[in-house]
Amino acid sequence: MVEISASVLNVEEEESAKTFYNLEVAKIDYFHIDVMDGKFVENNTVDKMNKYSNILKHITLLPIDVHLMVEDVETYVKLYSTIEPSVITFHYEAVKDKEKIKNIINLIRENNCKVGIAIKPETDIKEIYEYLPYLNFILVMTVEPGKGGQKLIPETLRKIKILKEYIREKNLDTYIEADGGINLETIEELKDAGIDIAVVGTGILKSENYAETVKKIKE
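Predicted structure:
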């Protein structure tokens, strides 16, 4: 059974509180916050995600899963640490400097958060092997980051399988999260590949029955 981190990226603002409540009642496991700065990716969701994060901080006890798609990682780590999320994930491609990556990992831990690194579809999975012992999560993007509602890139499934095998071989306690194009049609392939957590947005939000959809994805 996989866990679900529900992306709130495409939640309508006027219906946000009601939608968050309905998602929680449907038994999701995390709320997923997609922070985009308009530089690392084209879209800019900073204001919207700040608003949603603050709403969620006051209405839910579910863990908040922050995904930073930003260039200035340290600034946003400090900003989002104030909402006390469960995990903060940043992009490997936004940093790459080994020493800086280690410093950011330490910064997130110092703020009592679990740590994740995200990688784009074209990034070789082997590039982040050395960091896995220090990570709680590795987020494999199964679409190009920056937009919701895209179709899953099939080649990313192989990357997840390779990663899962490596984690097992090294006996690491690192969870694999997948993000992009996840719905009832694609979830089985992702489960077979070895994911632990599925980030699902429109796959739930566009369904007629959130609870039924969540249940089917988890099973």
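Summary: The longest strand covers residues 30-36.
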